[in-house]
Amino acid sequence: MNNYTVEAIELTRLYGGNEAVSNVNFTLSKGEVLGFLGPNGAGKSTTMKMLTGNLAPSRGSVKICGVDMMENPKEAKALIGYLPEMRPLYKELTVDEYLVMAARLHRVSTKHIKSAVENAKERCGLGHMSKRLIENLSNGYQQRVGIAQAIIHKPMVVILDEPTVGLDPIQIRDIRALIREVGGEHSVIISTHILPEVEMVCDRVQIIDKGKLVFNGSIDVLKRQRVGNKLLIGLRNPPAIEDVLKIAGVSEAESLESGMVRVRFAEGATPAEDIVQAAVQQGWGLYQIAPDQTSLEDVFVQLTYQEQAAV
Amino acid sequence: MIINVARKELKSVFASPMGWVILSLLMFAFGTQYLNGVNDYFAVMSGAMRPAERTGVTQFVGQSVYGLASFIMLFAVPLLSMRLIAEERRSQTLPFLFSAPISLTEIVVGKFLGLVAFLSILVVFIGAMLATLNIWSDIDFGFLLANSLGLLLMVASFSALGIYFSSLTQQPVIAAILTFIALFALMMLDRFFAGDPTNIVGNLSLTRHFQSFSNGLIDSADVVYFVLFAATFLTLTVRRLDADRLRG
Questions:
Q1: A309: pLDDT confidence band, cut at 50, 70 and 90?
Q2: Which of A13, A75, A77 sits opposite B99 (nearest CB)?
Q3: Tell me, what's the ipTM?
Q4: Which structural domains are found in chain A, ordered by start?
Q5: How many contacts does A have with B, using Cβ atoms within 8 A?
Q6: How many angstroms separate the CA atoms of A274 and B81, rounded?
């Protein structure tokens, strides 16, 4: 037995001959938070539905802690907590009624139901909402109820489909903190198309585009691609590019339309200090110097674009 | 697990006023019919001179109340069963059940039993109401039992059909209309074949199989008919939901 909590093996899903998801392979270990990224319609939700047994894959298989979702759906589903994109809330019930029902359906034994409900409410910050009708809760609180429902039976794997969509910034921050907290004990898969979110909460990232996995790796790899060896320098009296290139460590320089200069340097070199000195000595009028970060969006576009070019 | 799904259904019927309103309105209708039945009994029996014309009070009042009940259920059951799956599909709450560790069969049977449990409240109330005749008369409890069982079986069959139509659509209203039309057709079927009692199609009629119960007779053939009827539509519902999962 390996320690994978989720194994997806060559998952493929056809919709009328079109491959919505094709040959997706990945694994998830205990305690990891996996971010599932992709543009709209890339197949994120479809993959998640297959992982949770809401949709049968056309080919391939899903194993949850070694239990096959197709062969033993009940055992496999007992190990999963799932919050779909559309929150499956029965709005005519109160928070307590709903969570008790969720606990019962997820086979929490009768004597533990009360403590499970209390625990889930506490973790999701719902303590004072117990007797309220779900219908009357704000969007953010409804989302918390959705998450509480997914973690109530302490599943091995929690799968959240776009958990922060449509929430205000404070609610988003709370929910991210909650996801991190949940990720401590359970494996978590979240899908999103908000890139900074992935950076904040995930250990690993997968990027899916047009049903294919185009990137699968640690968040650090993505961050490294993002930072790069670049400096952005703002100068009032920019010199000729040749002068900048003379500074030790600078391998490439280009002036941008905004009057800034972008400087690339070799791995390991730290030319920042030299640049500042040169600027002061030669009166370039330095007013800004900062590492030039490619936005995650750019990395994302690069990755999805590379794949298209390769095909 | 089936029980938990059934409890959930019962809870959601009573979470809104609808469950209570339906219960009270129907009981009002049955109560009125009961009172009328008792009044009519005296009027009719005082005119009936020969012993052959005289019937027992149980049969007289019972038949009129159970006759009305089976007719009203024709309208009430589609209104209750329409929500079961169509509503969940529309408000996208089905994944809640689908991702819980329960099989499709358990979900469908649970929903079915939840609805039947609600309707059996009515059956019990009607039985209790008629049993009050026993205070000043000596009534035939066997007749009541047979009628109650018949009504319960028929209502269960209605519910199974209702669930199936509810699983076909996203719109509860469409499910209700389809269920009503189908039930109405099945009830009327034996009228069309009244001239030929052995006709196979006529034998499919729900009314015909209810008749022996309403005469106080528990016929195993009729019990089997209702059980098979319900089982068929429940199976079809499970298959329909499974197709959702397979085809998406």
A1: low
A2: A77
A3: 0.84
A4: 4-224 (3.40.50.300), 229-292 (3.30.70.100)
A5: 78
A6: 78
